[in-house]
Amino acid sequence: MPRDANTPTMTRTNLFLLPPKGSLTPNTPDDPLPYYYKPLVGWFFKKRIEQALALLNPPFKSVLEVGYGSGILLPSLAQMADRVTGVDLASDPEVVGANLRRLGVQCHLIKGNLLEVTFDKEGFDLIVAISVLEHIQDLEPVFERLHELLTPSGYLLVGMPRVDKFMEKAFASIGFKGIEQHHVTTYKMCIEAATPWFRLVKRAHLVPWLPEWAGLYFNMLFQKK
Asked: Between β-strands 217-224 and 60-66, what pairing exists: parallel, antiparallel or unpaired?
């Protein structure tokens, strides 16, 4: 969709486009959208996305985002792909779609379960799941489905927070109590579960000058086997 003089300006950091505050709507009470605009903690939320996108080598033909939430990542994906599709269990595609159109971004959005929604096999050359897979205990059917939807040698970009007692306290300190009820899978469990279908080609963690075991967030780029 072409931009006009009334289209809000987004803040660009490398491949990440941050929509102006108030231009998007949280999709649930737990949506992390407000944290992107807070001092200090906002650095962490933005930096994890910047680091994840830095693992990619665009352009792509067709991208699927799993768990698009408020749509905060979709403007960035739209700038690096011909077509962008999103699927989410809770988000209202009409609300998110309208917000994105006001930003000059056009995507095809679906409300539904990744495992149940009909997609063309091998229809995407990139699938993105940022802060999604840590919520899922049984990843085997998810990876099998993602493998089915990717083109041969297609890529899967995954971002996951550290999951342990330290992070429970860290999330509580920014006002998100009970995170252990939402985050049930670690990044190491994710890598192990992905192995039958994908090979890990790149990885990075926050904060990068810390050893990996002390990382706060983990970004991983997999390629379809």
From this structure: unpaired
Number of domains in the chain: 1
pTM above 0.85, yes or no: yes
Give pLDDT tens digits for 101-140.
999 999 999 999 999 999 999 999 999 999 999 988 899 9
Please check whether residue 2 lies inside any domain of the structure.
Answer: no
* Structural domain of 195: 11-224
Structural domain includes residue 3: no
pLDDT (tens digit, 9 = 90+) per residue, 189-225? 999 999 999 999 999 999 999 999 889 999 999 999 9
